Amino acid sequence: MRLVTRFLLSRYGGKAVTKADLAELCGRFGVDLDYFVNYVIRYGYVVRILRGLYYVKTVEEFELKRAPDLLRVLSLGMERLGVGWYFGLYTALRLNGVTHEYYDVVFVLSDSVYRPKLIRVAGKKVKFVKVKPSLVGFGLVKRSGLIYSDLEKTVLDFIYLSRYGSVSRERAVAVLREYADVLNKEKLAECVKHYPKTVRRVLRDERLL
Question: What values do phi and psi take at 38, rounded to 5?
Fold first, then answer.
């Protein structure tokens, strides 16, 4: 087992892999796949992101027992899946630098991945929220390997997702009002065209359109 785990770290360390990747590796070394997956998770060689999707720690992270950066782990995982995605809601507010308020859940918005309940990745809470594919192709910031919604898209997502219970309507409107003075009104008016009329109605009620 030592040989295959050493090869795993050397080839995939710092990357995201799928169960298919691990199956290929196990086939090469003649190791049982399910046993190997359980082994590398149990002994801390990999971090489980989703079912069948894992982050392989670097040699340094493993030997020093250093926790990998969660946002980077999630980013690598979503990119490995090849889906449309971005960090949104409270996570995006922090990444946009408009709040220092601590929120202990990381929000990942995706056109493909959904989990009804919070899951834990590297011991931290993560919420996967599914949105329409048409809402994934605009208003995004790409920086330092991370993808997140800009401020205008973030507040629109709060309003839009309040319709489905991801956040409360009261909280969504409160976020909109809190950042109303720093929103780019032209960008807001352009972005809201991608959302249902109910979202535009909220902006009109708040005199932002």
Answer: -60, -40
